[in-house]
């Protein structure tokens, strides 16, 4: 795996870990928001509605006690009106709960139990009012204090409390589910972050060491070659990656430079040898030229001697052109002179040819 692939793998791992944590976090956030919305819109609303039912039942009981304790007919009439309003509020609240706040079938069954207990309570309350209307105050008060009306009111209150407890239990389940999801998300995301950190850190450190060591070796080789001009030094190639290929290219460059320098050296040696040969030829030519000059000087001397001899011969021949008497007198001497001149002329010709 080369440097580019290692770098891509490291970045891809980091990005995938970031994406996983981000997407998982958003998903958990959405789930948590849904649980919170359910808890707020269903559980809390149901508990509030059932609390209103319980308050309505308390209002009914207070109105009954006021009815039983009021000696005046007007006060009792107001208490009856309050009971009627409380019944309307109770029925309206139950209808609203059934329409918007039911969670499941158990919740529906508990609501039906609330309605049944309310019907039983209203039936006992009707008998209570009939006894008061029949002037059976003691019997009516007995129903209110510990009789059937008291039991019906307690049953209604118990049904509503049971219903509230069930919805509170649903809320606790939502809270527990939210806490469980939070704990699971925390563990999963922590594991993903830790693994991504360790793997990405290991890959990054390995990539750093590989790049640092390879570049350091190339730097040392370049510095050594630049300082020592040692073209036999080569950069080490540890891996077949970008830096390794760079080192191979550098080694090839050094090899070609060394080859070019060797060729230049061979050419220089050839030129030097040719220059020495030319210098030797020049020296030989100079020697030969000097020898030719000496020969020319000797030839010039011989020519000068020949010229002198010819001149002497001419001078010697001049007296022979005098009048006949003198010639006759000097005939014998002339013949002896020519013989001598002939001998001298032959000697001069022999000397000339020997010099030449």
TrEMBL record:
Residue stretches making up the HAMP domain: 209-262
Transmembrane segments: 188-208
SMART domains in UniProt: HAMP (SM00304)
SUPFAM superfamilies registered for this protein in UniProt: Methyl-accepting chemotaxis protein (MCP) signaling domain
GO biological process terms held by the UniProt record: chemotaxis; signal transduction
Biased composition (Polar residues): 346-356
Positions of region (Disordered): 313-356
UniProt KW Transmembrane keyword: yes
A single GO cellular-component term on record: plasma membrane
Coiled-coil features, chain-numbered ranges: none
A GO MF label: transmembrane signaling receptor activity
Family: Belongs to the methyl-accepting chemotaxis (MCP) protein family.
Stored PANTHER family: AEROTAXIS RECEPTOR (PTHR43531:SF7), PROTEIN ICFG (PTHR43531)
Name under which the protein is recorded: Methyl-accepting chemotaxis protein
Species name: Cupriavidus basilensis OR16
Taxonomic placement: Bacteria, Pseudomonadati, Pseudomonadota, Betaproteobacteria, Burkholderiales
